[in-house]
Recover the amino acids of this structure.
């Protein structure tokens, strides 16, 4: 029981460490009680824009995964849009906030496969650049795979271009190494 | 696949606060269509072999 408690404690500390190591400011976020949906407000020159993040459970024939959906909430039309260019000059902070929700979601669904794809090629590329930039912090925590047309899903490599990504939280077998180190 | 929610009711991240009344958009066409599209991709390419090995 003590071992489990220590493991859990370390996992919490490590998560915080990820955010600190990335040295990224993030927005305050609201989470649904089932941790499948999150929202936050982007703030900048274009005003206060509500962002929604949803991890949708998808049943495939032999397995289940979660699609990461992300978009802007339009309070007039009551719809979600992921093609709009917000231009609120906070792209890095938004990306850090979405990343924090992925870590949080996988805290509660540690065995979940997550599928993520940008709404456009350039947005997928932006996700890829984010993964590239913080790969040193991401790699110990997540197994990440990138999709290419010819090869399918392959282990993520910096410098490659991908169409989509799949990630899963690594098992915490690195804990003993980290604690001993 | 076992991907249970641990349901401890709170986040480990101090910047994330649970709102029990948060509006649920699980049936919103936006998210439904995105999920359907992702399913087609996964069905076409399959999961990474390495990922399946990790799960075992």
């Amino acid at each position: 029981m003590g071992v489990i408690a220590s493991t859990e404690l370390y996992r919490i500390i490590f998560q915080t460490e990820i955010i600190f190591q990335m040295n990224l400011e993030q927005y305050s976020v609201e989470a649904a009680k089932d941790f499948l949906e999150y929202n936050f407000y982007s703030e900048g020159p274009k005003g206060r824009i509500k962002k929604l993040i949803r991890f949708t459970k998808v049943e495939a024939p032999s397995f289940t995964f979660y699609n990461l959906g992300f978009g802007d909430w339009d309070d007039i039309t009551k719809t979600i849009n992921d093609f709009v260019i917000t231009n609120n000059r906070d792209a890095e902070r938004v990306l850090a906030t979405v990343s924090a929700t992925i870590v949080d979601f996988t805290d509660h669904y540690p065995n979940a496969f997550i599928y993520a794809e940008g709404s456009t090629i350039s947005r997928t590329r932006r996700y890829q650049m984010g993964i590239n930039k913080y790969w040193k912090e991401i790699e110990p925590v997540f197994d990440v795979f990138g999709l290419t047309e010819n090869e399918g899903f392959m282990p993520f490599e910096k410098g490659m271009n991908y169409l989509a990504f799949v990630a899963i939280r690594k098992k915490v077998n690195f804990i003993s190494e980290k604690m001993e180190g | 696949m076992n991907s249970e929610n641990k349901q401890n009711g709170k986040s480990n991240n101090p910047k994330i606060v649970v709102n029990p009344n948060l509006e649920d958009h699980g049936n919103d066409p936006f998210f439904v269509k995105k999920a359907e599209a992702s399913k087609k991709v996964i069905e076409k390419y399959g999961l990474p072999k390495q990922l399946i090995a990790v799960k075992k």
Remarks:
- Chain B has a mean pLDDT of 84.
